[in-house]
Amino acid sequence: MFILVMRxxxxxxxxxxxxxxxxxxxxxxxxxxxxxxVSVKEVETQDVHQSLVIGLSHTALSQSEAERMAGTLxxxxxxxxxxEISLVxxxxxxx
Length: 95
Fold this sequence. Notes:
Blueprint: E1 2-11, H1 18-36, E2 39-44, E3 51-60, H2 63-80, E4 84-94
């Protein structure tokens, strides 16, 4: 079993309030969890309205499946995030 863990830092320079950030976050988190069946959560900077940091995890049967899912998730976030992706981190753990 392999566990994929990813962290995305997304800059939201146009966001003026935590309410705007919450709307962006909900949209992205809901679509990721629905579409790809991954666990997604805002993990840092909850009180900073122009920064969104999300963490996600996925369980795979093989390393190659985990790598494929990492690429798919990264592509999806780049295409659908309403901000600038400033950092992507990825780790795959064997369990």
